[in-house]
Specification:
- The complex is a heterodimer of chains A (about 100) and B (about 650).
- By secondary structure, chain A is mostly helical.
- Chain A contains three helices and no strands.
- In chain A, helix 1 packs antiparallel against helix 2.
- Chain B is mainly α and about 650 residues long.
- A two-stranded antiparallel sheet of chain B has the order 1-2.
- In chain B, a hairpin with a 2-residue loop joins strand 1 and strand 2.
- Chains A and B meet through helix 1 of A and helix 27 of B.
Chain lengths: ~100, ~650
C-alpha cells in the first residue's frame, strides 16, 4: 500500500472543510450557543491553515498569528457568552428567530 | 480737433448728431418744460435742415471728388470682419437728407400746434428727435451694419411714438404689433447682411459695389437668396405684403407721427435701403432644390412682384375704409408698393423720385387730415365729416393739392414720379404695367372718395359743423408742403438722382421740357396714367357726390365686405399664430407633464422610493439571513475573483 505523505494541501482541505462546517452551522442552526460554537470552529479552521502554512513555509509567523487568534478568541468568548447570558435573562430565549427586534 | 474738420463732409456728422443732442438735452434737463423742449427739438431739426441744404448745394457745386468724404472711425475689427462708422455722402443720401430734414422740420413745427395741449409734450419731442437721429443715421450710413443699427433705432423710436398714448390699449397694442412685425423682417435683414458678407467679404456699400464687379462664383449661387433676405428688412420697414399689417394700426399714434414716420420717412427707409443696395439684386442665380421653379428669376423680379401685389392689395382695401387716417395709411402702403416695384424692375431712379414726391404730398395729406381731426374733436370717420370746404379753407386747398398730387394729375408732382414707375413697368413687365395702371385708377378713386365725402357736401355731424380752420403754426407747414407737392415733379430731381447709377447722367432739361417730358418719352404710360385719373375721378364723383352713406357695399357685396375687413389678413394671421402657438404650447405642456414632471421628477423619486421599499425588506433582523447573505456575497466575490 502506497501512502502519500501528508502535504500542505491536506491541511488546507481539512481547514476549508472545517470552515465550511462552521459557516453551515451558523447559517442553519437556530441556537445562539451552537452558532457561537460554529464561529469558534471557523476561527480554528483558520488557525489550522495558518499552522499548516507555518510548518511548510519554514517560518514562525503563522504560529505567532495563531497565538494572537487564540488570545483574541478567548476574550471574545468571554464577552460573547456574557452577552448571550444577558440576552437570555432578558428574553428567556437563545433562539435567533426570537431575536429579530432590530429590523426596519 | 477743429483743425482737421473736413469741410463740407464733416457737416454730415453735425447734421446727424444735432437731433441726438436735442433728445439728450430734453431727456436730461428740460423734460419738465414742454414748450422749451419743443423749441429745442424744432431748432435742432431746422438747423439740421439748413446744414443739409448747405451740404447739398456745396457738394453738388464742388468739382473736388473728395468733397463727399467725411471722417470715419473703425468700429469693429474681428479678423476679416471690418465695420466702420462713417458717412456716405452721394446724390442718393443728399437728396434723402434734404427730404427727411425738410419734411421733418415742417412736421416738428406743426406738432408744436397739434400737440400743444398734450401733457406728454416734452416726451413727444424727445422721441421725435430720437427718431430724426435714427433716420438720418440710416440715410448717412456707409455700410450695412451701421445701417442696421440705426434701422433698429428707428424701429424703437417708431415704437415709442406709436405707443405715445400708451394708456390707450389700442395704441399700446399697435406699437407692439409694429415692433414685432418689424423685428420679423429685420431678422431676415441681418441674415442677408451676413450672407452678403460671407459671399463678398465686406459690408461697406462702396466696397461691395466694387467687389461685385468681379464677383466670385459663390455669389451667383446665393445672390437671389441674399437679395431676398435683405429685402425682408425692407418688407418690414416699408410694410410690404405679407408684413404690411402693422402700418394701418400704427395710425393709433399722433397724426404728426403718422405724417413723419408712417408716410414720409421711416417707411421710405426700406425703399431707400433697396436703392442703396440696388446693385445686389440684379444677379441671376441658381435657386436651391425646392425653389427650382424660380430659376431664371432674380431677386429683383420677386421684389417687383411683391411690390405690385402690395400696391394692388392696399389700394383695394383703401377703397372701403372709413377712417380718414386709415385710408391714407393704405394709400401709403400702395405707393410704397409702387416704389418697391420700381426698384425690382431695375428703376431705382423712379423709386427714389416717387419716394421724394410722395414724402411731400403724403406728409401734406396726413397733416391736413390731422388738421381736420384736430378741428372736429377727434372725429376720424369720413362719413361724420363733410362740408369742411367752407369752414377750413386753408386745409381744404392744401388737401386738394395733396390729393391731386397723389392721384397724379399732370402738372402735380405725383404724376411725374408715378409716370416714371409706370414707364419702367411698361418696358420690363406688361403684367405689372397693367397692374400699376389699375392701382392708379384705384388711387384716384379712393382719394376722390375721401375728398368728396369729407370736404364737399353738407356737414353730417355737429363737430364738423363747428369746425374752425387750423392755427397758423399748423397752417404754414401745410402751405409750405403744398409747394413742393406741386413743383417737385419738374424740378429735375429725377435727373439728379439718375446720375447716382448712370455716370454722367442726362442734362437737366428746362422747366417746360420737364413739364411735358412724360408724354414725350413714354406716351403710353403717361396716357394710361392720365386716363386712369380721369376715369377714377369721374367714377368717384358719380358715386359719392352728395352721398350720405357708401353705396358701394350694396353693389359689390362680398368684395366690398372683404375690402372693408382688410381681406381678413389680421384674422388669418391671428388664426395662424394661435394655431401654431397652441400646437407648440400643447406640445410643451405634454413634454412638461410627461417627460419632465413624469419621467424626470416623479420618475426619479418614484424609483428611489420603490427601491428603498424593496431593499428594506432585506433587513429583517434575523442574524442568520445576514450571515447567509454575507457568505453568499463572499462566495460570489471569490467566484469572480478566482475565475
Amino acid at each position: 500500500m502506497h501512502l502519500t505523505p501528508v502535504g500542505l494541501e491536506h491541511y488546507l482541505v481539512v481547514s476549508a472543510l472545517l470552515f465550511c462546517l462552521g459557516v453551515l452551522g451558523i447559517v442553519i442552526r437556530r441556537n445562539l450557543l451552537v452558532m457561537y460554537m460554529s464561529l469558534e470552529l471557523m476561527l480554528n479552521s483558520a488557525n489550522l491553515a495558518l499552522v499548516g502554512f507555518s510548518r511548510f513555509g519554514n517560518t514562525l509567523n503563522g504560529q505567532i498569528m495563531v497565538f494572537f487568534i487564540i488570545t483574541v478568541a478567548a476574550a471574545e468568548v468571554a464577552v460573547g457568552l456574557a452577552l448571550i447570558v444577558a440576552l437570555y435573562r432578558k428574553r428567556q430565549s437563545a433562539h435567533v428567530e426570537d431575536l429579530t427586534s432590530m429590523k426596519y | 480737433m477743429f483743425e482737421d474738420f473736413k469741410f463740407p463732409g464733416d457737416l454730415g456728422w453735425i447734421i446727424l448728431l444735432l437731433p441726438l443732442l436735442s433728445a439728450a438735452i430734453i431727456v436730461l434737463f428740460t423734460g419738465r418744460d414742454g414748450r422749451l423742449s419743443a423749441r429745442i427739438s424744432i431748432a435742432a431739426v431746422v438747423l439740421s435742415f439748413l446744414f443739409s441744404l448747405g451740404l447739398f448745394l456745396v457738394i453738388q457745386q464742388s468739382s473736388d471728388p473728395a468733397a463727399g468724404t467725411a471722417r470715419a472711425w473703425s468700429w469693429l475689427n474681428i479678423g476679416d470682419f471690418k465695420v466702420d462708422i462713417g458717412l456716405q455722402l452721394d446724390r442718393l443720401s443728399l437728396i434723402m437728407l434734404v427730404v427727411v430734414t425738410g419734411v421733418g422740420s415742417l412736421i416738428h413745427i406743426y406738432s408744436y400746434g397739434y400737440m400743444s395741449e398734450d401733457p406728454g409734450f416734452a416726451r413727444f419731442f424727445a422721441s421725435l428727435s430720437l427718431f430724426m437721429f435714427s433716420m438720418l443715421g440710416i440715410v448717412l450710413a456707409n455700410n450695412f451694419v451701421m445701417m442696421f443699427i440705426f434701422w433698429e433705432l428707428v424701429g424703437l423710436s417708431s415704437y415709442l411714438l406709436i405707443g405715445f398714448w400708451y394708456e390707450k390699449p389700442a395704441a399700446a397694442d399697435a406699437a407692439k404689433k409694429a415692433f414685432i412685425t418689424n423685428r420679423l423682417g429685420d431678422f431676415g435683414f441681418i441674415l442677408g447682411i451676413i450672407l452678403v458678407w460671407g459671399a463678398l467679404g465686406s459690408v461697406s456699400f462702396n466696397q461691395l459695389q466694387s467687389a461685385l464687379a468681379n464677383a466670385p462664383a459663390i455669389w451667383a449661387s446665393v445672390a437671389a437668396l441674399a437679395g431676398l433676405l435683405i429685402f425682408c428688412g425692407a418688407m418690414g420697414k416699408s410694410a410690404q405684403f405679407p408684413l404690411h399689417v402693422w402700418l394701418p394700426d400704427a395710425m393709433e399714434g399722433p397724426t404728426p407721427v403718422s405724417a413723419l414716420i408712417h408716410a414720409a420717412t421711416m417707411v421710405a427707409a426700406g425703399v431707400y435701403m433697396l436703392c442703396r443696395s440696388f446693385f445686389l439684386f440684379g444677379t441671376e442665380s441658381i435657386w436651391p432644390g425646392p425653389f427650382g421653379f424660380l430659376n431664371g428669376w432674380t431677386a429683383g423680379d420677386l421684389i417687383a412682384m411683391i411690390g405690385g401685389i402690395t400696391s394692388l392689395l392696399a389700394a383695394l382695401i383703401a377703397v372701403q375704409q372709413d377712417d380718414i387716417k386709415r385710408i391714407l395709411a393704405y394709400s401709403t402702403l400702395s405707393q410704397l408698393g409702387y416704389m418697391v416695384m420700381a426698384v425690382g424692375l431695375g428703376a431705382p431712379t423712379a423709386a427714389m423720385f416717387h419716394l421724394t414726391t410722395h414724402a411731400f404730398f403724403k406728409a401734406l395729406l396726413f397733416l391736413g387730415a390731422g388738421a381736420v381731426i384736430h378741428a372736429c374733436h377727434h372725429e376720424q370717420n369720413i362719413w361724420n365729416l363733410g362740408g369742411l370746404r367752407h369752414r377750413m379753407p386753408t386745409t381744404y386747398r392744401t388737401f386738394l393739392i395733396g390729393t391731386l398730387a397723389l392721384c397724379g394729375l399732370p402738372g402735380f408732382s405725383g404724376f411725374y414720379s408715378k409716370d416714371a414707375i409706370l414707364a419702367a413697368a411698361s418696358e420690363h413687365n406688361t403684367f405689372l404695367f397693367i397692374l400699376g395702371v389699375g392701382v392708379a385708377f384705384l388711387t384716384t378713386f379712393y382719394m376722390a372718395r375721401l375728398f368728396i365725402v369729407s370736404f364737399l357736401g353738407a356737414s353730417r355731424s355737429e363737430a364738423a359743423g363747428h369746425a374752425h380752420d387750423t392755427p397758423r403754426v399748423m397752417g404754414w407747414p401745410l402751405i409750405l408742403l403744398a409747394i413742393p407737392s406741386v413743383l417737385a415733379g419738374f424740378w429735375g430731381i429725377d435727373t439728379f438722382i439718375d446720375a447716382q447709377w448712370h455716370a454722367g447722367g442726362g442734362e437737366a432739361g428746362s422747366f417746360l421740357d420737364n413739364l411735358f417730358a412724360p408724354f414725350g418719352h413714354a406716351p403710353l404710360a403717361a396716357l394710361a396714367s392720365l386716363g386712369s385719373v380721369v376715369f377714377g375721378a369721374t367714377f368717384a364723383w358719380t358715386l359719392y357726390s352728395g352721398a350720405i352713406k357708401d353705396p358701394l357695399p350694396a353693389r359689390l357685396g362680398a368684395l366690398a365686405r372683404g375690402m372693408h375687413e382688410k381681406f381678413y389678413f389680421d384674422e388669418i394671421y391671428q388664426f395662424l399664430i394661435r394655431l401654431t402657438h397652441e400646437a407648440v404650447a400643447s406640445l410643451a405642456g405634454w413634454i412638461d407633464r410627461w417627460i419632465i414632471a413624469g419621467l424626470g421628477v416623479r420618475g426619479l423619486s418614484g424609483t428611489t422610493d420603490i427601491t428603498g421599499r424593496l431593499l428594506r425588506l432585506v433587513q429583517n433582523g434575523n442574524l442568520q439571513t445576514y450571515a447567509f447573505l454575507m457568505v453568499a456575497g463572499l462566495v460570489l466575490v471569490l467566484v469572480f475573483a478566482l475565475k
